[in-house]
Write a structure and sequence with these properties.
21 strands; mainly beta; 10-stranded antiparallel beta sheet
Length: about 270
């Protein structure tokens, strides 16, 4: 994976064949490379390493100011790499005129939401150990960025959990394109996200596409950058046609905008 077009921070360690590059910031993603056969930990949690020594480091929206990467080579030599994680300020987004049943669902609907979330989380944490990406991520849709990562959501006047993805407003039927290589691991119709597609990009990196009007892929399909996944819609909890795009690393939500860079021919709201 190449640099992700945004907030690049490169760290070279002369004492060991270790390289980290990417966004050392809340919501950011870094790629590392070490000697094949090495083991890697991020803050004492072991992470996946490809046979060629590649690995990924992700930072949650509320990540602390410092992370520690531990590299243990096959010969037993250990390297500790401190990483300074930049803090961010997030917007507050108010969304009104949602149907009350979508803001405060009944018990049966809450059980459905919990089941659907568990399915998605399970797929995020079981993603392939094999890296499938060879190209930088691109925006799956060109449009107006109407919802930003990390923003505090207020729905019909009620505070909700932070929005851990990016929303792109575009006309219904606008094609949604795969941002990089991957395999389709979920196609569904869920209460919150409506018609939904999920891709596995390898090494625990997954991406999710929600509120589609139609889906043009099936589980097991291998997709190349630019392959059509479906079309923009307003299914699920949506007030207008838009794409919700989420990216996770081993279940930790990252900021897709940091991976894709500036929106082509568009401006954020």
């Amino acid at each position: 994976m190449r640099a992700f077009h945004a907030l690049l921070a490169v760290l070279l360690i002369a004492a060991a064949p270790v390289k980290l590059e990417g966004s050392a910031t809340q919501g950011g993603l870094m790629q590392g490379h070490t000697a094949p056969g090495s083991k890697v930990w991020q803050d004492e949690r072991q992470i996946r390493v490809a046979p060629d020594g590649r690995f990924l480091i992700g930072f949650a929206h509320d990540a602390g100011a410092r992370a520690e990467i531990k590299i243990e080579e096959e010969g037993g030599e250990t390297e500790l790499i401190p990483v300074a994680v930049a803090a961010r300020e997030y917007a507050v987004e108010k969304i009104d005129h949602l149907p009350p049943s979508q803001v405060t669902p009944d018990e049966m609907t809450l059980q459905r939401i919990a089941s659907e979330r568990a399915e998605v989380t399970g797929l995020q944490t079981k993603a392939s150990d094999t890296p499938m990406f060879a190209h930088p991520f691109a925006w799956p849709v060109t449009g107006i960025v109407s919802g930003t990562y990390g923003s505090a959501r207020i729905l019909n006047g009620e505070p909700r959990a932070p929005h851990l993805g990016v929303d792109v407003a575009a006309p219904e039927g606008t094609l949604i394109l795969a941002p990089s290589e991957g395999v389709v691991i979920l196609v569904g119709d869920q209460f919150l996200t409506g018609k939904t597609v999920m891709l596995d990009h390898g090494l625990g990196l997954t991406s999710l596409y929600a509120h589609l009007s139609r889906v043009d892929v099936k589980v097991g399909d291998k997709v190349s950058p630019g392959a059509v996944l479906g079309a923009v819609g307003a299914t699920g909890r949506a007030t207008a046609p838009n794409l919700h795009w989420g990216v996770h690393l081993n279940g930790v939500a990252l900021d897709p905008a940091l991976l894709a860079g500036p929106m082509p021919q568009s401006q954020s709201q």
